[in-house]
Amino acid sequence: MAKPSQYHRSVGQVSIEFISMVGIGFVFAALLLLIVNQLVSEKADEERRHQINNLGYFIQDELLLAESVHDGYERTFTVPQTLGKFPYTINSTTTSITIMSGKMTTTFTIPTITGSIQKGANTINKDGSITIT
């Protein structure tokens, strides 16, 4: 039987090396994509948390102001339909508001109110107690 020539051995070696390098390239590309995905996800969660806090503190401030002023106070404020690009739900009780978006839920303490906070226009009236309509 004839021995394989030097040329055939080097072509085979180059093929194996090429396949190995392409495989390593795919592994690095997959790792890079995983890292980028994680960073984008963390940034989105941070932005969502920021938007929730902005809205919650805005509503809380409006109600604290209403609590501190004289009877006869009336003010209308608008609760947005979305938090930037994030959908959300809002629930209120007589002493708190809860904002939920994605997996995040944040509750804010508010002065005692009658009525509930909804998306859209909300009117605060103070005549002895705070009423939301």
Strand fraction: 25-35%
Fraction of residues in helices? 40-55%
Largest sheet features: 4 strands, mixed
Count, helices: 1
Elements, N to C (H/E): HEEEEEEE
Distance between the termini: 97 Å
Mean pLDDT, as a whole number? 91
Reading side by side through the largest sheet, how are the strands ordered?
A: 1-6-7-5
Low-confidence stretches: none
SS-based structural class?
alpha+beta
Number of strands: 7
> What form results from the Cα inertia axes?
rod-shaped
Rg over CA atoms: 30 Å
Overview features:
47% helix, 26% strand, alpha+beta, single chain, 3-stranded antiparallel sheet, 4-stranded mixed sheet, rod-shaped, 1 helix, 133 residues
Topology:
Elements lengths: L5 H63 L4 E7 L9 E4 L3 E6 L2 E6 L3 E2 L5 E7 L3 E3 L1
Could you explain the architecture of this structure?
- There is one protein chain.
- This protein is 47% helix and 26% strand.
- Strand 3 and strand 4 form a beta hairpin.
- The radius of gyration is 30 Å and the shape is rod-shaped.
- The relative contact order is 0.14.
- The longest helix has 63 residues, at 6-68.
- The strands form two sheets. The chain has a four-stranded mixed β-sheet with strand order 1-6-7-5, covered by helices on one side. The protein has a three-stranded antiparallel β-sheet with strand order 2-3-4, with helices on one face.
- It has one helix at residues 6-68; strands spanning 73-79, 89-92, 96-101, 104-109, 113-114, 120-126, 130-132.
- It is built from one helix and seven strands.
- The model has no long low-confidence stretch (mean pLDDT 91).
- It has 133 residues and is an alpha+beta fold.
- The chain starts with 5 loop residues before the first helix and ends with a strand.
